[in-house]
Specification:
Layout (H helix, E strand, L loop, with lengths): L23 H14 L7 E7 L5 E7 L2 E3 L2 E7 L3 H8 L2 E8 L4 E11 L2 H8 L4 H9 L9 H14 L11 E15 L7 E9 L5 E8 L2
Antiparallel strand pairs: 1-2, 1-5, 3-4, 4-7, 5-6, 6-7, 7-8, 8-9
Length: 216
């Protein structure tokens, strides 16, 4: 298959510094709302990249479940490959891609565990089956068959038949605390608009965001 000619021109919109909010979290809120308003499937999907102790990068898609000016939160098994990577090197990158809007957003920062109370609050909001699934899956471990998972699921279903599923101590959230945002808007002739927000510490000791346009 020849994919040299798989090509689309990006013509929907442009991005200028005067249109940017000086606060990258507010700019994220605007773009995220745009993605939701367009009824995109899984607008909160983001690729999170980590680095193993051996220096090998790995990316996977997770779902953003909350955010504020502290950072961006996703949930996982704390024994998973991504969690083990974060334990050894908490520098991570997240990437949102909203193709229908011809937009990407890259966020770099450090990942830290959220509080147990925050993990519990989200865990209790999950459907019954998803709460059971957190108990069943020893994420990233090798399993011999799917039937083993289904057997374990049935076992947990009987164990927690009253619907009261406790939060596993090996499961919870990570918050990505950003130091860098890059907003990317596709443009014609591959002359895309890219703006980077980099965090700096002011003379008053406050975090401030510096905005720079990047070459496409």
């Amino acid at each position: 298959m020849d994919i040299f000619n798989f090509r689309n021109e990006y013509l929907k919109s442009g991005l200028d510094e005067k249109d940017l909010n000086p606060n990258p979290f507010e700019q994220f809120a605007k773009w995220f709302k745009d993605a939701c308003d367009c009824n995109l499937k899984e607008p909160n999907a983001m690729a999170v990249s980590t680095v193993s102790p051996a220096g090998a990068p790995t990316s996977r898609v997770v779902l953003l479940k909350s955010w504020d000016e502290r950072g961006f939160v996703f949930f996982t098994n704390y024994s998973s490959a991504k969690a083990r990577d974060i334990a050894s090197n908490n520098n991570v990158s997240a990437l949102f891609i909203w193709l229908d809007l011809e937009r990407q957003l890259r966020i770099n920062g450090k990942a830290e565990k959220v509080s147990t109370a925050e993990s519990l609050r989200y865990f209790l909001s999950r459907p019954f089956g998803s709460r059971l699934g957190a108990w069943v899956s020893h994420q990233s471990s090798i399993i011999t068959s799917r039937s083993l998972l289904e057997m374990q699921f049935d076992k947990m279903k009987r164990k927690f038949a009253d619907g009261k599923v406790p939060l596993p101590d090996f499961w919870g959230g990570f918050r990505i605390v950003p130091s860098y945002f890059e907003f990317w808007q596709g443009r014609e002739n591959r002359l895309h608009d890219r703006f980077a927000y980099s965090s700096e510490i002011s003379n008053d000791g406050e975090k401030v965001w510096k905005i720079n346009r990047l070459a496409p």
